[in-house]
Design goal:
By secondary structure, this protein is mostly helical. Helices cover 70% and strands 0% of the residues. The longest helix has 15 residues. The chain starts with a helix and ends with a helix. InterPro entries: SpoVIF. Pfam families: SpoVIF.
């Protein structure tokens, strides 16, 4: 992809694309049945997006992924974080 494209995304979102790519790379072999792994991912996404996640919300996300078997993707986490 064009570097200019990613610079525009960074400018509009305030999210560093290197952080996003590093996170995506770390997810490739992650065990999403492991609660600690899922919590780490949620915290990292929260940090990258600069959106705090309460302990209650983190617990709900973890339960939905680990116990209910929902897939883990940025869109799912984003919807849960932004739900009020």
């Amino acid at each position: 992809m064009d570097n200019h494209f990613f610079k525009n995304i960074e400018k509009k979102t305030g999210v560093n694309m290197k952080d996003v790519f590093d996170l995506a790379s770390s997810l490739q072999n992650a065990n999403f049945k492991d609660e600690d792994t899922v919590r780490g991912v949620i915290r990292r996404v929260s940090e990258i997006a600069n959106k705090p996640v309460s302990q209650e919300m983190e617990d709900k996300i973890v339960d939905s992924i680990v116990k209910d078997g929902k897939s883990l993707d940025f869109n799912t986490i984003n919807k849960m974080i932004n739900k009020k």
